[in-house]
Each structure stands twice: as structure tokens, then as C-alpha cells.
Amino acid sequence: MPKRLENSLLFIFTVSLIATLGSLYFSEVRGFEPCTLCWYQRILMYPLILISGIALIQKNSNIALTTALFSLIGGCMSLYHYSIQKLSFLKESAPACGNVPCTGQYVNYLGFITIPFMALLAFILIFITSLFMMKWQKEFTK
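^ that's the sequence the OP posted. Answer follows.
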């Protein structure tokens, strides 16, 4: 396997690990209860650690499509979640989300960085890396 594919696997593993540890920090250390949309995003992020970790050990870059799909769905969910937090016309029509409202913002760094924004950034990084991996795999198999 070419080094850039191996580095891509390592990058996906690292990003998903940091995102997971960050979400666990906010919920377990800081005591922020996740809303329903946060749980859905976690459901899509947490398996990426296992998938990319095993692929990294096996040096198997064929997981690029899987990581791309997980991150695409997770990214769309994060974008929607971030939008209902920041756009007033969506905030008013946001669905009820269980015990914690999905419009709530536990953190708001620099006026725009919220937890869904951080998740969105992680999903985008994984998605773009997965696309590059798929492109490089085609070159490698030629």
C-alpha cells in the first residue's frame, strides 16, 4: 500500500479518535447531556475509530467508501444541527429533542464554534480524506 493511503488511514483514525474523545469529554467530564441529534452524530462517529483502526492495522484502504458514507451522513446531520442552533428561522421550527433541546449551545467559542460545528469539521475532514483515498486507490490499481 502506498504511504499516502496509509497516512490517510492514520489521519481518519486520528480525527475520529479526537472527535470521540472530545464528545466524551463534554458529556462525561463537563457533564453536558447530549441531545438527540448529538447522539445520532456519535452513532456515526464512534464506529469510524474501530473501522479505521482495524484498516490501519491491516493496511486495508478499501474502507474508504464506508468512511465516506458514514462521514457524509454524519456531516449532513451536523450541518442541520448547527443550522438550527445558529439560524433564527430554523431555530423557531426546530423539532423537540428529548430532555435537552437541540438548539441549546453548551459551548460557543469565538461566537460560532459549537459542538455540532466541531463534529461537522471532523466529518468534513474524514469525508475529503476518504474521497482522496478512493481516487488514489484507482491510481494504485492501474
